[in-house]
Amino acid sequence: MLGHEFMRLALLAGTPVALACGLLGYFVVLRSQVFAGDALSHVAFTGALAAAAAGVDVRIGLFIATLAVAAAIGGLGGRAGADDVVVGTVFAWILGLGALFLSIVTANRSGSNGVAGVRVLFGSIFGLSAEQAWLAAVIAAVVAMALIAIARPLLLASLDAAVAEARGIPVAALGIGFMCLVGITSAEATQAVGALLLIGLFAAPAGAAHRLALNPYQGLALSGALAVGALWLGLVIAYLVPTLPPSSAIVGVAGAVYLAASLGGRLRAATTAG
Predict the structure, then answer these.
(1) DSSP H or E stretch at residue 188
(2) 181 with 115: CB under 8 angstroms?
(3) Distance between CA atoms of residues 116 and 218, nearest Å
(4) 254, exposed or middle or buried, with CB in 10 Å at 0-12, 13-18, 19+?
(5) What domains does the chain contain, in order, with CATH numbers?
(6) How far apart are CA 32 and CA 67, in angstroms?
(7) What contacts 80, CB < 8 A, 6 or more positions away?
(8) Beta-carbon contacts of residue 182 (< 8 Å; ≥ 6 apart)
(9) Which of 56, 50, 21, 55 is nearest to 207 (CA)?
(10) What angle do CA 213, 217, 221 make, to 5 degrees?
(11) CA–CA–CA angle 223, 146, 93 (5° rounding)
């Protein structure tokens, strides 16, 4: 399997991207911002369509759109903790823009634009070039390191914003920065799992980690490990079953991990109660 270059490039790009998704996902779940993460995954598609309509590289649209909207969501929410009203309003606006850009791209009838749109929607991790794979790996590694650097104050701000502010932690700026990291990762991770399935890689490993870990730092590490494991196993399954899209396999494994963790938690609770 590793004798194929497309598989090596998929692992090179996918491993750090999955790690970043797992680490960020832990805080996304902790801060009850799963809806915001879902919105940003759709923003990535709108940004790609905007770039396709303008005739430029879709990655430019991906990063500009997700960063701008992530900062807006973080800044408009209370204490940068984007509430559902803010996210829903921005989400509706972005979907409207997406419909506009889709009509422009469709009217243009460009085959390359259509292919680019499909890749953003469903991912194309087996189709990455060496340049794309290395770029994705570097960006995701930087995001992961940035999150680890702010993990301690972000944890306190997520659990008790008032106490964090009293200790001099810039809660609002930290929240905006966190959302920007989510936006960057959303833009890059669309190459692996696509905009439609991206939320699964954010939420499922993190949800399992919240159920299994005994403390936040163990949970953070476990969430990253489960996301990477889901990507590895998903790629292997997709290689063995060529008709199965790798994005579907990856998110399917992540979902199965969460289901197993949920069932295991219920069984432990039932055993303890008995």
Answers:
(1) helix 171-193
(2) no
(3) 38
(4) buried
(5) 5-194 (1.10.3470.10)
(6) 20
(7) 74, 171, 172, 173, 174, 175, 176, 178, 179
(8) 24, 28, 33, 36, 37, 40, 70, 202
(9) 21
(10) 75
(11) 80
State the Cα torsion 224-229-231-232 to the nearest 10°. 140
Q: State the Cα–Cα distance between residues 120 and 61, nearest whole angstrom.
A: 11
The whole-angstrom separation of Cα 128 and Cα 135 is 10
Q: pLDDT of the chain along its 274 residues, tens only?
A: 889 999 999 999 899 999 999 999 999 999 888 877 777 877 877 887 787 777 777 778 778 888 888 887 777 765 545 566 777 777 777 777 877 777 777 776 555 555 555 556 556 788 888 888 898 899 999 999 999 999 999 999 988 888 988 898 998 889 889 988 988 888 887 766 766 677 788 889 999 999 988 899 999 999 999 999 999 999 999 999 988 888 889 989 999 999 998 888 777 766 766 5
What are the tokens at 273?
């109660």
**What residue type is assigned to position 167 of the chain?**
R
